[in-house]
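How a chain folds remains the central question behind the approach discussed here. For one protein, we set the task of working out the structure tokens from the amino acid sequence alone. The sequence in question and its structure tokens are set out directly beneath this paragraph.

_____
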Amino acid sequence: MRDSCSIYKPTFRFRPRSSIDALLTVFLSIGPTLALAQQPAAPPVEVTVVTATPQATPASYEFTGKTESSRAVEIRARVEGYLDKIAYTEGDFVRSGQLLFRLDPQPFQAALDNAKGDLARAEAQLANARATLARVKPLAKENAVSQKDLDDSVAAERSAQAQVQSAKAQMRTAELNLGYTTIKSPLNGLAGKSEFREGSLVTPGASSLLTTVVQLDPIWVSFGAGENDVLKFRQQKASGQLKGSAANVEIELVLADGSVHPNKGRIDYVAPTIDQKTGTLAMRAEIPNPNRALSPGQFVRVRIQGIERSNVLIVPQRAVMQGPQGKFVYVVGADDKAEVKPIQVGDFYGDQWIATSGLSGGEQVIVDGAIKVRPGAPVKIAAPATSSKSAGQ
């Protein structure tokens, strides 16, 4: 007897393996093509450019310098005496002719009075000698006196004249010594502290320094240019790359806080040789300082202005990239595609580089959008090409 419960047995139909492989092959060959066909082409990168155009640009050189007084005078005693008065405020500004110190004048006044008395006595003796000679001369002509008497009278008159000259010199010396008891400032400037106190005995010589007065207007700035900078400057000057005369060169000072001194000066000294110890060429500039804003001993940055570079190419700093082989820029080449231009740069001019090689002029250098650009990628110029000079302004 057959079992009434029948068991369902599913039936599977298998395709031949060759048919499955054929379908996979067709799918794999068509799939990438369809994906590429569906992906749109990348749009051109929008960029701004500047046209590298040869032009003249100012050349600025900067060095570290130190201010110093253009005239520092040591105030010393010229006669011995007791310091009677300190007539100025230590560390304050003093004027030319202003009283600084006074020594006790009484001994010197007494010496002057004595010298005047000696002069009066010598003048009286001269008058008497002249009167005697006047009487003797006519008598000598008549042989009423001897020749010896005449000679003695002449000698006495000449001796009296010499005594008068000596007495005048001593009186003049006494007057000078009395004048030296009042010590005045020889210039406008800052006076230092007094090395003596009132009542101290001051003597001439090495220990006679009373104070020092330093002139502030004008003020000097000493600085040095390295040997390499000097050689480079001379070569560029000789080749015509740099133009400018000494009359047009100005000196600008940048102070420690970054502010610029309002008055510009001139170079008034250049050393004839390079210092072998420091390897620098010493220079000095004279700067007007009417408001006494600068003091001796300040460190400043010295900028030399008034020299011009001729026919140089400049590119904005943000357009210059750094690669494994050095610096480069992107330029818009044929078919509006980006091209790589390796360049070498020199000094800064504002926020731009001076390109010393790699550009010949006329290239459209990519500035904004250069980070997104790749070699050979299409680009779209967003603004009309301008010169690099106007772009940097």
Observations:
- Residues 1-15, 389-393 have pLDDT under 50 and may be disordered.
